[in-house]
Amino acid sequence: MKKGSIQGRIILHATIDFFGNISRRRSVALSVLIQFPALLSSCVDIYPESAAREIIVTTKSSADGLLDLFFFDASEPFFLDSYQRITPDASPVYGLSGAGRKLAVAISARGEDIYDRSYVRALGDLSSDIFSLSRERPVNPLLFGSVYLEEGRTRTVTLQLKPALCCIRVRSLCCNFRERPYLGKSLENVKLWLVNAVSEFAPADGAEGRPVSWENYGCLGSDSPLLCQDGIGTVGIERIYPDVSLYCYPNPVDDETPGSPFTRLVVEGNVGAVHCYYPINLEGMMPGKAYDLDITLLRIGTSDPDLPAVTGQIITEYSTVPWNEKEPHTEIF
C-alpha cells in the first residue's frame, strides 16, 4: 500500500526589500500526492534541504480536495512565516519560507466552504479553527497534522496527516437473557446511538486537537446518520453482524467527571413492553482510530441512555485499531 507524498525542492533566493536591505528566503516548490491508506492517514514528505530536487506532479483530485499549508517560526510566539491553499489546478506549488527552524502545519478545507484562513498571523490563531461534523464525509474525512523542520537536515521529514474523526464500529450483537422473566427474550426495534458525542473539534489546538462542543449531551436526539443508525431489527440469541459505523470527534477523557463525560455507544430497544438502553463507555478516544465492538446483552438494560450499563447487564469485547475499513483511494493535488 503506497503512501502519498509532498515532494519538493528548496532554493535560496536573495531579495531586496523596500529599504534596500538584502534578505535571504527559502523558496519551496511542492507537489502534493495525498493517499488515504484505508482512510486512516496520509503522509506528506517535505524536503528541507538546500539542494535542488526533481519535481513530480500528478493531478487527479476531486474539486473539493483542498489543503492549507502553514509554516511558522518554531519558537514563541510562533509567528506565521508563510501560508497557502493548495488546489487541484495549482501544481507545482511555490511557497516562501524564511531561514531557521520551522513548524509546518497542514489542515484540510472543503471546496464548497467559504473558509478563509488568511486571518492567521501566528500559531495561536489556528486554535479557533473548527472542524464540524456537518462538514465531514467519512469516505473523505478532514485531515490535520504538523511537523518540525530542522535547519540544515538532509533527510526527509514526514508530515503525518490523520482524520480528526473516530469511527465506532458495531461488528456483532446478540441477546442472551439468562434470568426470569426475560429468559429467552429478544431485543426488538433496535437502534444504535452515540451520546456525549463531540461534534466540533479544534484540530490545531495541541498535538491531538481539542473537543469544542457536543451533541446528544446526556440524552438522545440528533438523527444525524453519523450519530444514529435505525433499522437494526430484532436481536436474539443468534449473533447478528449489523455492519454499522458511527462517527464523532475524539473525546480523550480517561476519568469521567460531571463536566467531562465519556462518549457512549447506546444500544436502544424493547424487551416485551419494557423500553431500555445499554450505554457503553468509549474511553480515551483519539483521532483517526476505529473502535470495534462485539456486544452480548445478558439482562434488562437501564432506563437512562446516559447511565452506563452495570456488571452483568452486558459483555463487550472492545478493541482499538487503526481506521482501516475501505480500499485506499487517492486524492492528489
Q: What does it look like?
A:
- There is one protein chain.
- With 333 residues, the protein is an all-beta fold.
- The chain has 2 domains: 6-163, no CATH class; 166-322, Sandwich (Immunoglobulin-like), CATH 2.60.40.
- The chain has no helices and 21 strands.
- It has a 6-stranded antiparallel β-sheet with strand order 3-10-9-7-4-5, with no helix packed on it.
- The protein is elongated and about 75 Å long.
- Mean pLDDT is 75; it is low at 1-41, 47-63, 90-94 and 325-333.
Summarize the structure.
The protein has 333 residues and is mainly beta. It folds into 2 domains: 6-163, no CATH class; 166-322, Immunoglobulin-like (Sandwich).
Shape designation: elongated
Number of helices: 0
Q: State the end-to-end CA separation.
A: 19 Å
- The total count of strands amounts to 21
Helix/sheet category = mainly beta
Query: How much strand?
Result: over 45%
List the secondary-structure elements in sequence, H or E.
Answer: EEEEEEEEEEEEEEEEEEEEE
Helix content: under 10%
User: Which blocks of ≥5 consecutive residues have pLDDT under 50?
Assistant: 1-41, 47-63, 90-94, 325-333
Biggest sheet strand order reads: 3-10-9-7-4-5
Average the pLDDT over all residues and give the rounded result.
75
Rounded to an integer in angstroms, the radius of gyration calculated over CA atoms is 24 Å
What's the number of structural domains?
Answer: 2
What can be said about the biggest beta sheet?
Answer: 6 strands, antiparallel
